[in-house]
Design brief:
Layout: E1 6-8, H1 12-15, E2 19-20, H2 21-35, E3 38-48, E4 52-62, E5 69-81, E6 84-91, H3 94-103
Parallel strand pairs: 1-6
Antiparallel strand pairs: 1-2, 3-4, 4-5, 5-6
Length: about 110
């Protein structure tokens, strides 16, 4: 990732919060650890769009208390600069991610 990477998970639409830079990525990882006993992004399909990548994934999580694993669609659109991720945009579903990837930077 670039030094000034902007990571916007799907919940950013609700919170208005993005994670910026290395310290932001560290905070995001801490937030995941606090929220879930385990969390994994499983790639299902990756599409190279030149200066961006569309990743259709499954977000698998397990809560701290119940131990019940849950999975949901997670679509990612990543802009790439000099081979490194500059922006990481998350979407609650694959269709919205594909639409954003095809629309280009906005």
């Amino acid at each position: 990732m670039t030094d000034d990477v902007q990571l916007r998970p799907p919940v950013s639409e609700l919170t208005g919060r993005a994670y910026v830079g290395r310290s932001g990525i560290s905070r995001w990882l801490r937030d995941l650890e606090e929220s879930f006993a385990s969390a994994e992004i499983v790639p299902l399909e990756l599409e190279d769009l030149g200066d961006r990548v569309l990743a259709l994934t499954e977000f698998k999580v397990e809560g701290h208390g119940g131990g019940v694993p849950l999975g949901s669609e997670l679509g990612l659109v990543c802009d790439v600069v000099d081979g490194r991720i500059a922006t990481w945009l998350g979407f609650f579903n694959h269709a919205d991610a594909r639409e954003a990837a095809e629309a280009g930077p906005g």
